[in-house]
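Follow-up to my earlier ticket, as requested here are the two runs.
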Amino acid sequence: MYDQKSLKLLNFGVNTITLLVIGYFLGGIVLGPLVSLQGCVGVSFSPAMATPCAGSVLGLVLAAFGSLAYTYYYFTRKL
């Protein structure tokens, strides 16, 4: 049904999205308190709206850099 390259690219996409999601949530739980921010699970709910935590945004930025490194490794070494 699928050729080998399509499955490898699908695997790469799923791994990249998973890395970003884990970075987002771990940023709120772990990185937030480390840099003296309030820890949360990714979204803080105020009465009017839901806003992302500063730690989650920091985790997402760090996960994006990790994703760039993973992309370089994946396409230069594995594919």
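Run two:
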Amino acid sequence: MIKHICFDLDGTLVDSRDTILKSTKAALDKLEINYNIDEDVFTNMIGKHFVDIFNEANIENVDFDEFISIYKSYYFDFIDSSVLYPGVIDTLKFLNEKQIMVSLLTTKVQEQADKIIDHFNLRASFDYVMGRRDGLAHKPSPAPLLYICNELKVDPSETLMVGDTELDIQCGKNAESKTCGVLYGYRNKEHIEKEKPDYIVSGLEELKHLLG
């Protein structure tokens, strides 16, 4: 029985591709760092740490602390380029009415995660919001999901981790939770199937059927 659903943010609840891309370019321009970003390739890397993204994109000589600081300062200049995916509001309402606990787990820093949830007026729908925190490993480590489960006093085996990337599915598996991959985010169907999640949905409202 599922008592708790933990959602990823980018590519799962929010289509933030353009906001992330615009903020990244603005920060790199500010730092006067040369880059040649293929937008489709970049989209397929969203969810990974920027260190890994820049390594794969051959963007060099980046002071990541400085980059992240500038990136965050620009992010909300472009927040109106982000939109909720279809079915998010109705699905969260359904889960709240079913008294299934709802949490968020994102690799964005805590302050940024909180601001985004508040921007979309979703705070009341969540029992816990978890961003990246110092001293705690991020996805695909199970550590942040186990932390959430502990805070909500729910067993990981009664938890469903929902996300659009390999990091989300691996995190859930590593925590010994159920996993659900979504097909509308930043990874293709083949990529998701390769991770062998317990469930795969093409739209978020399909969770209603999974949960009866």
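The only thing I checked on run two: Strands lie at 4-7, 14-15, 83-84, 101-109, 128-132, 159-163, 178-182, 199-201. Let me know what else you need.
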